[in-house]
Write a structure and sequence with these properties.
The protein is of the alpha+beta class. It has helices at residues 2-27, 38-49, 94-102, 114-151, 176-190, 192-196, 216-227, 246-260, 288-301, 323-326, 342-352, 364-369, 376-392, 400-412, 423-442, 477-487, 489-498, 508-523, 557-584, 586-599, 604-618, and strands at 32-34, 56-60, 65-70, 74-78, 84-88, 104-109, 158-160, 205-209, 231-235, 264-269, 309-315, 333-336, 449-453, 463-466, 538-542, 547-552, 601-603. The chain is 49% helix and 13% strand.
Length: 632
């Protein structure tokens, strides 16, 4: 399209030049002479006729013009009325009489200048030039169309030269095991003889599996940077087009380029776009995507051992990939990249803050503890948000408050202080959030409360942030029961303080999450005393995505009724436990909610200090205000 526009522009420019030139030459003819009498004009014409055969333009005092032609002895011309005159110039007075009769006094010899020549041949040149330009433009369009048609089968892969690596293993943190696995790939590309000497065969393909933002693409670039080899990068969706056979052709072209640049790395991002299991679509075996996958399978299995081309692919949906793509000989090695633990988060924070001006008081260890579940991309965004906040406040250093505010922005969204909330609703929100926080601080198996706020963020009117003290990979039944109670603490506080008639819709999300958690305890984790250790319903679920892809019911109506009863029992019991906690600590709840309404945001340490002050004045010997034991 760009070539077509450029050719059309040149065509218009050339035509404009031709037209302007014609106008200019028409406006400025060749040399002219002014004759004061008809006798002088006749003598001039006589002299002209004996030496020229080109037409002669003459004009009268009124501005009328005509042309005369001569064979050397006679002159033929037309007057203004169109009458033809023929007269002898040499030694004749007829010409003088005629010129005097019609008042012609000026003449211009068209053969005396360039304009006369152009006037004769300009129409032919103009027509011929237009034809040449048109033919040239049509040829260019045809050639561009052919090139565009031929380019459909070419690979869209982008080549990064390996002599200037922009990313190395030093830029990747939090995935030590994955770096170790891929380190062998680097050694093979650098020292292939070390492996071939003992008969070892390096894996032809490496599949990087993990949730979004865990560094799959970055890690593959680091492999190419460490090995110092060319790096071909392409997305799985770039193989398939609307034309039949284009995808397979691009696969062939990609691997042809890779073999010419070997040793090299071919990185296919989001390979699930082209590598989905065959036979699942409406197109059957003739589906274009399946033909592309077939060609990919052939190319990967047809490598020669001396090509030194390694394929690295990334996906967050390994369950949908074709089994033939995952077998040994194609993607021999599967590397799992999970969200980093606390040590990995600290290492990632160090990498992303390497060139940032941090305040000396910033503790990355504390930040790592406050960001459980964050991926590498989340941590990178956190540091960037903190830098933006510091620049917005005209600060030279990034301080701890900037980083903590960035954490809240990443988790809950930016503050919406412009949202107008009445004092009555603000008080209701404060009691609701303090209900969550107080239940969480009272029960034994909940995460410590980090911050409470009634400042609106995102879609939430208020929020309570609880952070674990360490990374957890297993959750006990006692912890789940306490989580249920904490989730329902907000509704319990509204019921206790405002009355049942004044409970609000603010607990809708809490109730939904509590119901989902209770159902999972019954149907997936076997934590129901009545139904026992059984699972109900067949699900396809990605563990690291936390997303149900489908469910099939495999139980009777009676079991479904019992499941509903067990879910109701768990939720109702958790509600009563939370309400009992708040009833016993109602005075503390009122003080905390009043304080939160004033300051809008409260840290967990400040909340604990107020609790100690209030209960220290109220406690009497033998009164226990400690934790409430978990139980159903």
């Amino acid at each position: 399209m760009r070539t077509s526009r450029r050719g059309f522009t040149w065509l218009l420019l050339l035509l404009s030049i031709i037209v302007v030139g014609a106008i200019l030459y028409g406006r400025f003819p060749g040399p002219t002479a002014t004759v004061r009498s008809s006798g002088q004009l006749a003598a001039a014409v006589e002299q002209w006729a004996s030496n020229h055969t080109a037409p002669l333009a003459i004009s009268n005092s009124s501005g009328d013009q005509t042309q005369i032609s001569s064979d050397g002895s006679t002159v033929t011309w037309y007057d203004n009325a169109g009458t033809l005159y023929t007269t002898t110039i040499i030694q004749s007075t007829e010409a003088t009489d005629l010129f005097q009769k019609f008042g012609y006094t000026n003449y211009a010899d068209q053969s005396a200048g360039l304009s006369s020549l152009l006037e004769a041949i300009l129409p032919t040149l103009l027509l011929f030039g237009i034809m040449i330009v048109f033919v040239w433009w049509m040829l260019r369009q045809s050639q561009a169309g052919n090139n565009q048609a031929m380019s459909f089968g070419r690979s869209r892969a982008r080549l990064l030269a390996g002599d200037k690596p922009s990313v190395t293993f030093m830029d990747v943190a939090g995935v030590d095991e994955a770096k170790q696995e891929l380190g062998e790939i680097v050694e093979f590309l650098k020292y292939p003889d070390k492996f071939t000497a003992v008969g070892a065969r390096i894996p032809k393909g490496v599949l990087l599996v993990g949730p979004p933002g865990t560094g799959k693409t970055l890690l593959s670039k680091a492999v190419a940077g460490e090995a110092g080899v060319p790096f071909f990068s392409i997305s799985g969706s770039e193989f398939v087009e609307m034309f039949v056979g284009v995808g397979a052709s691009r696969v062939r072209d990609l691997f042809d380029q890779a073999k010419k640049n070997s040793p090299c790395i071919v990185f296919v991002d989001e390979i699930d776009a082209v590598g989905r299991q065959r036979g699942a679509g409406l197109g059957g075996g003739h589906d274009e995507r399946e033909q592309t996958l077939n060609q990919l399978l052939v190319e990967m299995d047809g490598f020669e051992t001396s090509t030194h081309v390694i394929v690295i692919a990334a996906t967050n949906r390994p369950d949908v990939l074709d089994p033939a793509l995952l077998r040994p000989g194609r993607f021999d090695r599967h590397v799992m990249l999970d969200r980093p633990d606390i040590r990995g988060r600290r290492a990632i924070l160090e990498v992303h803050s390497r060139n940032k001006p941090l305040d000396p008081a910033v503790d990355l260890e504390v930040l790592a503890k406050q960001t459980p579940g964050f991926s590498g991309a989340d941590l990178s965004n956190l540091i960037n948000e903190a830098a933006i906040l510091a620049a917005r406040q005209n600060r030279k250093l990034i301080s701890m408050p900037h980083l903590e505010e960035a954490i809240a922005r990443v988790i809950a969204g930016p503050e919406r202080k412009s949202r107008m909330i009445s004092d009555r609703e603000k008080t209701t929100i404060a009691f609701h959030e303090m209900g969550h926080a107080l239940v969480g601080m009272t029960l034994e198996h909940t995460d410590p409360v980090h911050k409470i706020s009634v400042v609106s963020r995102g879609m939430a009117l208020g929020w309570t942030l609880s952070l674990p003290t360490e990374d957890k990979y297993l959750v006990s039944k006692a912890e789940l029961l306490d989580q249920l109670a904490q989730m329902l603490g907000g509704r319990c506080a509204e019921d206790l303080i405002l009355g049942e008639a004044n409970i609000t819709t603010g607990a809708s999300d809490d109730i939904r999450k509590a119901t989902d958690l209770a159902r999972k305890m019954v149907t997936e984790w076997g934590m129901s005393d009545k139904l026992g250790p059984r699972t109900f319903g067949e699900r396809q679920e990605m563990v690291f995505l936390g997303r149900d892809l489908g469910e099939q019911r495999n139980y009777s109506e009676d079991i479904a009724s019992e499941i509903d009863q067990e879910v109701h029992h768990l939720v109702e019991t958790a509600f009563l436990r939370a309400k009992e906690v708040l009833r016993r600590r109602e005075s503390v709840l009122r003080v905390l909610a009043t304080k939160l309404t004033e300051v809008e945001t409260m840290e967990g340490a400040e909340m604990q200090r107020i609790i100690d002050e209030v209960e220290g004045r109220q406690a009497t010997p033998g009164t226990e205000l400690g934790t409430v034991a978990a139980g159903v």
